[in-house]
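Holo model, adenosine-5'-triphosphate. Inputs:
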Amino acid sequence: MKKSRRAAPAAGHPTPAAAVEPENAVELRDVSVSYGTTVALSGLSLAVARGETVALLGPSGSGKSTALKAIAGFERPSSGRVLLDGVDVTDASPARRGIGVVVQQYALFPHMRVDANVAYGLKARRMPKAEIAARVKAMLEMVGMEGHAHKLPRQLSGGQQQRVAIARALAIRPQVLLLDEPLSALDASLRAEMLLELQALRAELPDIAMVYVTHDQSEALTLADRIAVMRNARLEEIGTAEQLYSRPAGAFTAKFLGGASLLPAISTTVVPDGGAMGSVLAGAHRMKAVAPFAVNPGGRVLVAVRPHAWKLAAGSPAAAAGWAGDGAGDGYTVNSLPGRVESVQWRGAGHRLQVDLIGLSERVTVDLPAMSAVPAPGDLVVLTVEPQHAVLVPAGEL
Ligand SMILES: Nc1ncnc2c1ncn2[C@@H]1O[C@H](COP(=O)(O)OP(=O)(O)OP(=O)(O)O)[C@@H](O)[C@H]1O
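Output:
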């Protein structure tokens, strides 16, 4: 959670309760949305602080857009409450919420010029003409579109249209900006460019709360202070990118966000409160990994290892020769697992290997940096991982 930007009350002069501003610009309390028999969102509780960007990340159909519609007021929750700045707006119309919304397909009015599109929400609020003109000019400058004010949307590129859509959403000076896959209609290079622009824009709007829906983790990692991972209409996990990436609390997040391999294992140590190193047996292999939660001997866990965390043991593939005989290695070398390379793929920044672990019937993904010696398909290798780069997650359903 972001730190409050407000000054703390002076010592001895506590702020009266009534004057305390609510910290959260957006709050969903146990919100569910159903479409007929389809439960699109189930019991979502989420708070977004002023100045904070939260990304809703998850596979298709996981309820991300529905959550956004509940905040904007386009869908009424079947249960639960929606609060903006501490005020319950569950029954308020979208217009009364004063939220800026940017959706995937620009959604500009095709028959209106760029400047009229940006002015639209201001006219609806009956702002004086001179003020509208000044605001439109400022907004178009902010998104680098000041030279296109008199064009129609069809005369603009996809990226330019999306910039105008952002200017239009920001023109009403919303306290909350919702973005639903705003870059997904753009090609890869334009998407990367717009991502940088959104990052710059974010810095110019320090007090706006943003909720950003995406299924692209690089967008979420670039823009968000916190990431909410959605799955099957529910919030799976929420945290900073760093927390979710390196210490996922569940197998789904480990796989979805970090692309981690998950090795089934049995705990051999007691870690009462989590946060310490745990020891496990993955098949016949002894492994040490960070245990972010309490584990007991005999408990079933998964060892999550991200593709970049694997290393080839020195001397691999030759080092693997001694391991192949009994299929399980000697069982004494910690965090060293023998395997056979199934495939090798050149990926520009390095090589991606698929390696079948011997004795574990698991295939793991290994990303090797460029310049490292690359084995060939069929080679025996020994994979290693530093204990601090392996993390235990509960053996949940994927
Ligand atoms: N208007 C609707 N009528 C009926 N079902 C709907 C409607 N809108 C969404 N759904 C269903 O609700 C579920 C959640 O949809 P939602 O659009 O929120 O998912 P999402 O995570 O945003 O997916 P995507 O990434 O594909 O946009 C899906 O099963 C979807 O089919």
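The pocket of adenosine-5'-triphosphate is lined by residues 35, 38, 40, 58, 60-66, 215 (CB under 6 Å). The chain has two domains: 19-246, 260-394.
Archived with the compound record.
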